[in-house]
Specification:
- There is one protein chain.
- By secondary structure, the protein is α+β, with helices and mostly antiparallel strands.
- The protein has four helices and seven strands.
- The strands form two sheets. It has a five-stranded mixed β-sheet with strand order 2-5-1-6-7.
Length: 153
């Protein structure tokens, strides 16, 4: 038996069809770090961001919000590779997370799935198995995990 890589994220394939899609996103929130600093430190551009101190709906918003897509696809064969590439991104930036989170920042990895439900077959909306070493590493770095499944009927 060949050992799995230390931080392999998923240990089984998802029951996706070719019509299903996914994205792996990251959300960062911080009371003083700017979106420019986040973008430069992580070498990514935000898909959406909000600068701390600007007004939203006539209220001051004090925290910077930064949202980026790390990976996306629509093929079940691509999912495990995409999740492993997201792990590589997290590991590559391991030095950034302690300072960012230690300064009252929050980081969340978001696994989004859009699934075409086939009720006649009794499909599950979402079935995902994440390896314990992946979850321990996220926890050790202080990174939260959100899993979202969207039904596309």
């Amino acid at each position: 038996m060949i050992p799995l890589p230390m931080l392999s994220a998923a240990s089984m394939r998802l029951p996706m069809t070719a019509n299903d899609s996914f994205s792996i996103d990251i959300a960062l929130r911080h009371p003083s770090c700017t979106r420019e600093r986040i973008s430069k430190a992580l070498s990514i551009k935000p898909r959406a961001s909000h600068r701390g101190g600007s007004k939203i709906e006539n209220r001051p918003k004090s925290w910077t919000h930064f949202f980026a897509t790390l990976q996306k696809g629509d093929c079940p064969d691509d999912y495990e590779n995409a999740l492993n590439r997201a792990v590589l991104f997290i590991e590559k930036n391991a030095a950034f997370w302690p300072d960012f989170i230690g300064g009252q920042g929050e980081v969340e990895l978001i696994l989004n799935h859009t699934l075409l439900e086939e009720r006649a077959r009794g499909d599950l909306c979402l079935r995902l198995h994440l390896r314990p070493d992946f979850l321990r590493r996220l926890s050790a770095l202080g990174i939260g995990l959100r899993i979202q499944g969207w039904n596309r009927a």
